[in-house]
Sequence to fold (310 residues):
Amino acid sequence: MYLAKIYVTYKPSILDPQGEVIKSALTRLDYTGISQVSQGKYFEVKLDARDVEAANAEVKSFTDSLLINQNTETYRFDLSIVNEDEAIL
Amino acid sequence: MRAAVIRFPGSNCDFDMLYALQDFGIDAEIISADNNDLNGFDAVFLPGGFAYGDYLRTGAIAKFSPIMAAVIQAANDGKLVVGVCNGFQILTEAGLLPGQLQVNKVPGFICEDVELLIENPNTAFTNAYETESIMIPIAHGEGNYYADDATLAQLEDNHQIVFRYAQNPNGSAHDIAGIMNERGNVFGMMPHPERAVDPVTGNVDGQPFFKSILSEIIAGD
Fold:
């Protein structure tokens, strides 16, 4: 069994209004050195697959079709082998 | 004319849309998103709300609901497909309209009447308007239209931008409030024309929107 940890972020050119609001709140809290905040999404998905290549292909396929909107988002992921009864995180 | 109003789990403007359509004598009924058949309908309306709780992204889960294959088929058959607010978000997620609706530029839910400029009066959705500017309510937190520069240029060149905001409330690219596909039969807008048809609401600027659709369907018969 595989565990995919998928990190979704905005493409560099995309305005991230929530990140901007968090940045201004941090500045208000006197964290004056902060130059940029970007808010993304994080997913953990357990899946069965024949081998690591098949697991990689499946994660790419469902992330492209559902987890992200390719207009504005991009992603990277890590894949590891886990036991079936191993809890996520 | 028969119209289907699609009810997704979490739709909340389905009855507003039904009421508006029936007000213009249109034989409209609510169809659950669990159905997979829209045969016999001349037009399909995707109403506002929060389909599937807007989980993941607005419209992201809705695009895989059973009814969407039939909605895409209706669009390909040249039938009118109209998405308002959450319906617009679903149409972009499903790829029936280009671009994406993002979180408002200043995050937060905006609920107010806004002035819209009728950018293209020669569409199935605007042909009955005799003015260039109307007031229509908006109610959304994710109405900030985004598309890449090439897509925006294409929308401009093909006159696919139907409504623009007079004062941009949400950061939408090119002040876009409503767009249609190149063929002109699939349309989405963030503002709510179905909330501006009854004089009791104090605003009837949405009436010509429905009159336009009605005349288009009758002309097509």
In short: Chain B has one domain: 2-220. Chain B has five helices and eleven strands. Chain B has a mean pLDDT of 96.
